[in-house]
């Protein structure tokens, strides 16, 4: 009897051991597919962005957590040395660990948000703001953007109950989304998209405007080269349209006037195949608003007599 009991126990232990061995090997194989030869922060962030594009939360977490584990302490030390954002490109690159860890948390937050886990998304956004506030992320177009600012925007949107996707944060993406929201009468979304475009790209747009003596001409590619100017001017125009639809004429006039005063060489691409001049369209809208106001004033004066 005792021999049978021992044999049974040994058999059970063997089955359990075999089970855990199989699970361990399977888990190892699963993790192995995520491993990269280069575990530098840049490589890990690149893989994390790709995983975000694939909407693969598990893969995003693997790469972002790996980045935080390897470089989080160094990033925290870099953050502690700063009292503000570095401004010179070479100096910004010197804070590589801070930049990449802040970006890792941002990618992680975006993945959680897209997966519908808003609590974990909020936690990741807050980590950037509280611990890695001066980190900056390199955009392949040639500039840095601030993950802490983007995280603050995302939290504000969640507080308003908005679930908007800024996509790749390019100006053209934001403008396209703003046009779509305007067509759908989602005016609050219009303002979020246009404000984001203006906030991120108005400085570059102003630089392009200053370099011009007239409207850019030539091929479509030559006009598209002034993308920031075109998209920021378009954002203000869309914003003016949204305010006009909301019945907020004063804010609409302010948006239209901004184009005429500061971004008057901006042009907007029409999908039918040509560019139109935003300052001309803004001036036309201002005339209409003035005519409407004149009609209202005349009606009011007549009613008082």
Give the helix level as a range of percent.
over 70%
Record field, number of beta strands: 4
Separate helix tally = 13
Q: Quick one: biggest sheet?
A: 2 strands, antiparallel
What is the domain total for the residues? Answer: 2
Which shape, going by the Cα principal axes?
elongated
How widely separated are the two ends?
115 Å
Radius of gyration: 27 Å
Order of helices and strands: HHHHHHEEHHHHHHEEH
Which regions are unreliable across 5 or more consecutive residues at pLDDT < 50?
15-32, 297-305
How are the strands of the largest sheet arranged?
Answer: 1-2
Given helix and strand content, the structural type is mainly alpha
The average pLDDT is 86
Strand content: under 5%
Features:
mainly alpha, disordered C terminus, two-stranded antiparallel sheet, 5% strand, 2 domains, 305 residues
Question: Could you explain how this protein is built, in words?
Answer:
A hairpin with a 3-residue loop joins strand 1 and strand 2. The chain has 13 helices and four strands. With 305 residues, the chain is mainly alpha-helical. It has two domains: 34-163, no CATH class; 167-305, no CATH class. Helix 8 (171-183) packs antiparallel against helix 9 and helix 11 (227-246) packs antiparallel against helix 12 (249-262). It has helices spanning 2-32, 41-53, 57-80, 89-94, 96-114, 118-131, 147-159, 171-183, 187-210, 220-224, 227-246, 249-262, 278-304, and strands at residues 137-139, 143-145, 267-270, 274-277.
């Amino acid at each position: 009897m005792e021999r049978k009991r021992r044999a049974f126990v040994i058999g059970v232990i063997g089955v359990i051991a075999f089970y855990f061995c199989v699970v361990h090997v399977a888990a190892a194989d699963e993790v192995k597919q995520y491993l990269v030869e280069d575990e530098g922060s840049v490589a890990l962030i690149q893989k994390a962005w790709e995983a975000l594009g694939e909407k693969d939360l598990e893969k995003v977490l693997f790469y972002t957590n790996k980045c935080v584990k390897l470089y989080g302490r160094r990033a925290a030390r870099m953050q502690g040395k700063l009292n503000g954002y570095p401004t010179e490109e070479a100096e910004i690159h010197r804070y590589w660990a801070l930049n990449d860890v802040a970006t890792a948390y941002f990618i992680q937050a975006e993945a959680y948000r897209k997966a519908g886990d808003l609590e974990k998304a909020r936690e990741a956004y807050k980590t950037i703001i509280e611990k890695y506030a001066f980190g900056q992320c390199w955009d392949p177009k040639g500039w840095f953007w601030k993950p802490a600012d983007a995280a603050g925007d995302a939290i504000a949107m969640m507080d308003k109950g908005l679930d908007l996707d800024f996509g790749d944060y390019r100006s053209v993406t934001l403008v396209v989304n703003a046009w779509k929201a305007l067509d759908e009468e989602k005016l609050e979304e219009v303002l979020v998209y246009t404000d984001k475009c203006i906030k991120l790209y108005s400085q570059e747009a102003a630089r392009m405007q200053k370099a011009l003596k007239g409207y850019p001409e030539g091929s479509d590619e030559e006009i598209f080269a002034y993308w920031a100017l075109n998209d920021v001017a378009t954002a203000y125009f869309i914003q003016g349209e949204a305010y006009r639809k909301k019945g907020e004429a004063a804010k609409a006039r302010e948006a239209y006037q901004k184009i005429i005063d500061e971004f008057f060489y901006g042009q907007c691409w029409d999908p039918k195949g040509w560019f139109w001049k935003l300052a001309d369209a803004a001036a036309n809208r201002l005339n209409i608003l003035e005519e409407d106001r004149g009609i209202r004033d005349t009606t009011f004066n007549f009613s008082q007599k």
